[in-house]
Write a structure and sequence with these properties.
- α1 crosses α8 and α2 runs antiparallel to α7.
- The longest helix has 21 residues.
- The N terminus is likely disordered.
- This protein has 408 residues and is an alpha/beta fold.
- The strands form three sheets. It has a six-stranded mixed β-sheet, with helices on both faces. The chain has a six-stranded mixed β-sheet with strand order 2-7-6-5-8-9, with helices on both faces. Strands 3-4-15 form a three-stranded antiparallel β-sheet, with no helix packed on it.
- 43% of the residues lie in helices and 18% in strands.
- α6 links the parallel β6 and β7.
- It contains 15 helices and 15 strands.
Amino acid sequence: MREVKTTETSTAKGEIRTDASYPEEIWKTAEKIIQTVRKDGDQALLRFSKEFDKQDLAATELGIPLTDCQKALLAIPSEVREALELSAERIREFNEKIRPKDVSWTDAFAEFSWRWTPVESVGIYVPGGTAAYPSSVLMAAIPAKQAGSRVTICTPPRPATVTLAACAVADVDAVFQVGGAQAIAAMTYGTETIQKVDRIIGPGGVFVDAAKRLCAKDVAIDFPAGPTELVAVAGPDADASQVAADLVAQAEHDVRAKVRLLALDEKTAEAVKKAVQEKVKKTARAAIVAQSIRNAVFQVVSREAAVEALNKGAFEHVALYGKAAGISGRIRNCGAVYVDTPPALGDYALGSNHVLPTGGFARSAGMLSILDFLKAVVTIRRTQKGLEKAAMAIAKSEGLFAHADSLE
């Protein structure tokens, strides 16, 4: 494996950092915000909105009426409304295909029933900041609603009209204009206005991510959300311009976005690198892209080395082009694999989800789906004795004699 040297797009060792360690001050600030919300409830949310978001809200403004979401849906351009509705329809279709089924069976000793039941309440964090994210509303809320969960949205104050419109399309149950670590604390512990939830999902900045990790001892979370990651694998038959476009697309998310090319030959590496540099000059979010692309990695690798690097890195997105698609079945650790398909299409309209594990968490987690909002309830009825002796022997070996007595 060898790196293509370039001062603009290489790191010192060609490595992409996937850890999400933060300075101690981040953790301390997030913990202070959480404890303040637990103590002061809505009043803390109002103070933090004024301090961090520069929005002086009244307590009655924390919740956004669902009628406002419906009005927002009518206010956005018709082509955007139709696109959101199409995306929502495809997300529902995708998740219905993978919805698990209840099962029951009987053997010689017992009757079993395995039933899927919804997580009762779900809190979804939708970022604000430099861009609006209606797609994040759809991706997170629709599978939860399909499972049967009650869905609460928290998003920074004065959300974009299109974000509220997406809340209407997804048919969420409550929307609050509360951002940052304080939103995570409110959904975890509850306030006078915001009900506590059973699971929190959704990406955010460093303080949101830190708060989710800190609150994970008291509420289930999806997975820590880090900067966007995309690794492209391409050979001489790939369209260098398309590969570059996909890399730049992910780079525009955030200055900390991590993009990487594993080229199967040096000519491809140079062609994509050149195309990236040209596209950076023309992109609308050039200031962000220029910073994130500066840390991009371009390497020339063999197919075997590419597979090894992908499974070791456990990246959020992997994009395979042309004959590189031949390695798709060997990728074990990844949020989503796109074969000759722009990852941006999956971000919006395919029906799959763009909420994906980052920072190496794809080793143990996968794409967000309806499965994340369902849990199994098992019912068991003994129909025939005969297993008690074996169970007693194990109980006694563990020193749990009351267990053995109950069996005897």
